[in-house]
Amino acid sequence: MSQGNTQSQGAQTTGHVWDDDLQEYNNPLPSWWLWAFYLTIIFSITYWVLYPAWPMGKGFTTGISTITYKNDKGVEKTTHWSTRALLMKDLQDAREMQKPYFDKVAATPFDQIAKSPDLSNFVASAGKVLFSDNCAACHQSGGQGKMAFAPNLTDDDWIYGGTYDKIQATVANGRHGIMPPKGGADLSDVDMDNLANYVLSLSGEPSDSAKAAVGNELFHGKATCFSCHGADGKGNQDIGSANLTDKIWLWADVPGAGSADKKVAAVKAVIASGLNKGVMPAWGGRLSADQIKLLTVYVHDVLGGGSKK
Amino acid sequence: MQAGTESEALFQKRIPIYTRSVKGTFRSFKTAMLLLAFAVYFGLPWLPWARHDAPPQAVLFDMVGRRFFIFDMVFYPQDLISLSLLLFIAAAFLFFVTGLVGRAFCGYFCFQTLWTDAFTFIESWVQGERPARVRLHKQAWNAEKIGKYTLTHALWLLLSFLTAYSFVMYYGYAPELTQRFFSGSLPFVAYFTVLILTLTTYAAAGLAREQVCTYMCPYARFQGVMYEPETLAPYYDFLRGEGTAGRAVPREGSKARDERQAKGIGDCIDCGFCVQVCPAGIDIRKGLQYQCISCGLCVDACNNIMDSVGFPKGLIRYDSEINIESKNPGKPHLDLLRLRTVGYGAMILVMVGALVYNVATRSDIQISIQPVRQPLFVVMSDGDIRNRYQIHVTNKTLEVQKYRISAQGLPAGALDLGEMREVSVRQGKSVMVLANVKLTPDMATKINEVEFVITPLSMPGQAVTKKVRFYAKHEG
Fold first, then answer.
1. Which residues on B lie below 8 Å from A117 (Cβ)?
2. Which residues does A contribute to its contact with B (CB < 8 Å)?
3. pTM score of the predicted model
4. Quick one: A46 and A70 in the same domain?
5. pLDDT value at position B399?
6. A156 to chain B: nearest residue by CA?
7. How far apart are CA B123 and CA B125, in angstroms?
8. Which of B374, B381, B423 sits opposite A246 (nearest CB)?
9. Which of A11, A81, A169, B166 is 20 to 30 A removed from B53 (C-alpha atoms)?
């Protein structure tokens, strides 16, 4: 079997000669190779018959194999084989595999889900996908929110309430928080300065106690803050007014302000121009009731901020 | 130069090989290996083994449950490292052996060799010894030829089917699978596997045979680089066999050894038996070739002939290139003390040690704790700082286990596990538990590590302790 220059003595060549003596061997192929090659030809012809293959003007040959799937609306469709239809079929299979779990979540009371390791693990993984697709754009991937934009869902402070029912209502119907602006005609700059000092004092932030005392009177009097935030400043979850006495800030970046002056300025800015941007869209029309329930449990249990009552 | 000295064929026809059967040491060893390998391969799925919660089968690969039972050991996908170590050891051992005694794997242990051997046994049992098979091949199609060929191929297909069928038996409880197989209630993939393996076994061991080694097997082609001049392999002693005047068939005047030596004729009587017994169809007298699978059958054949003509044995023998080329050859011997063999040997020892340690210290429980990183920590409304952890508990025992999760070095009430203080996990499954750790800002400056303890309630001695960081501020 040794091969080398000696072979040129008796070997087949293609018969072409270049540059006087340059020739091309015509070495035969092993038979198993040739038969494998014929098999690939048979394979490709079979493929053309079964699957989409040849371009034909504006269309293509579709092949005779078909694929049937149900789309996410439950409508059954039959089409020629294509990778897109295959994906739809896979998605249908995945939905059908998930369905028993979704049904179980739908049938289980909120507080029982946390007691079942199977269901909570399903909520943790399926909820993460739903949350990432629909909620993370504003509330961020871990639900940690963004200062002056979207509330943190992992802490224990809830503007509209953190029970299962309240969270479910928030997701289904959406929320729109409004705080009237107090700047301009209503309050002078000095008034707002005093008010800001009082608001900071409520949560133990550094403040000027003299100014805060004046602010206290404004809060419960002329500025009418108490009508929404309550006489004790703890807010009202039914109308979504913020609790001013805790350490959590959404619209005024008090934790991020470097100095006492900047903290006052941050609170003053909110008092002056009010708020009309806390808009959460309603998901009732876009997600199914089962998905909203799953998201509710995910936000309450898995993100970890839900309140017991 | 003239084209067409050979016929203008599109492909090179395989020259059929009809191996002559032979008796001898290597043949006996090969037969013993074949019987042992077949007994293990075909018998193992039927070996019963008492087991608590799984089918009583000694070796069972439960793909659906992702559990792999090997006698008293159970492996899970998490034990992948053991498999990697095993594969590494197998590779290193192969290189070690090849450097020492050549392609011993190819010659005696490779399944291509074993199955080809078995198929050849069937062929010669039906069609007879080599001359009969050559005659049958050449003769025109008649009742005898059709009958014998049909029987041969039918038996080949039967053995192929049994091979494929036994393979499938490893993936379920064999008696139950058998019943379901023949009642047609197994999933399509099982029948498809059997069909594909039947066809490939038939094609590889019945039709392609040595072509698999010559053209398809990558290992056959690259193991030449593992040979050294000291490596033992079947060699033809050309100095002795060819003499000064070449080999010659014994005739009047060149029969006795002293007559031949006087004329300079070598000991090789050119009987051609070494070629006729070769499953790769090569002539070992042309020297070591890449098609040679080191099966030693030519050694057996030549020794038998040397015995019958009264010459000393060992004209073809396992020897090293150095020895065979020396004018004064010594006894063939294993040359262990070489950089390559010592290196591979040391690698194997280290890896076997690692594997034994890995398997012996396998724990029945696997814990992984990941801190929730988004957000890294949360400031609560009262200023407390909370970190959250995902604790994955995997139960590697054969029973349902209950685990208690607790933490050390935390003030009372800091750890909140919701409803999962004790969690039960099914065998071979894992469960994720969310743990909340809440500390006052004061405590958070002092405590920067949480130590979780996961205790299996049925065996408190096997409790696992893991430390994780507690974050109270963004760093850097």
1. 420, 423-425, 431, 433
2. 1, 8-15, 23, 26-34, 114-115, 117, 120-121, 124, 140-142, 144, 152, 154-157, 243, 246-248, 255, 301-302, 304-305
3. 0.68
4. no
5. 84
6. B380
7. 5
8. B381
9. B166
Residue A67: enclosing H or E segment and its boundaries? strand A66-70
- A292 and A258 together in one domain: yes
How far apart, in whole angstroms, are the C-alpha atoms of residue B467 and residue B408?
10
Tokens of A271: 């008092």
Q: Write out pLDDT tens, residues A45-56.
A: 999 999 999 999
Q: Amino acid identity, residue A1?
A: M
Question: ipTM, 2 decimals?
Answer: 0.74
Tell me, what's the pLDDT at A308? 67
Chain A contact set for B373 (CB, 8 A): 142
Distance (Å, whole) CA B335 – CA B232: 9
Residue in the structure block whose two tokens are 């403040």: A207
| B387: exposed, middle or buried (Cβ count in 10 Å: 0-12, 13-18, 19+) | buried
Sequence-separated contacts (24+) of A97-101 with Cβ below 8 Å: A98/A126, A101/A126
Is B39 exposed, middle or buried (CB count within 10 Å of its CB: 0-12, 13-18, 19+)? exposed
CATH topology for B365-469 is Immunoglobulin-like (2.60.40)
Residue environment code for A279-293, b if the CB has 16+ CB neighbours within 10 A, otherwise e: ebeebeeebeebbbb
Average pLDDT over residues B82-99: 91
What spatial distance separates the first Cα and last Cα of chain B, rounded to whole Å?
79
Whether residues B381 and A154 touch (CB distance < 8 A) is answered with no
Query: In chain B, which among 418-447 make CB contacts under 8 A with chain A?
Result: 418-420, 423-425, 431-434, 436
Using alpha carbons, list the distances in angstroms from residue A123 to A82, A98, A290: 33, 11, 11
CA distance linking residue A85 with residue A93, whole number of Å: 12
User: What is the extent of the structural domain holding A79?
Assistant: 66-107
pLDDT at B76: 83
Read off φ and ψ for residue A261, nearest 5 degrees.
-60, -45
Q: What is the domain partition of chain B in residue ranges?
A: 25-225, 228-325, 365-469
Of residues B432, B362, B431, B426, the one with CA closest to residue B398: B426
CA distance linking residue B238 with residue B267, whole number of Å: 9
Assess whether pLDDT exceeds 60 at residue B246.
yes
List of chain A residues whose C-beta atoms are within 8 Å of the C-beta of residue B289: 1
To probe the interface with A, which of B12, B394, B416 has the most A CB atoms within 10 Å? B12
Confidence of residue A116 (pLDDT cuts 50, 70, 90): confident
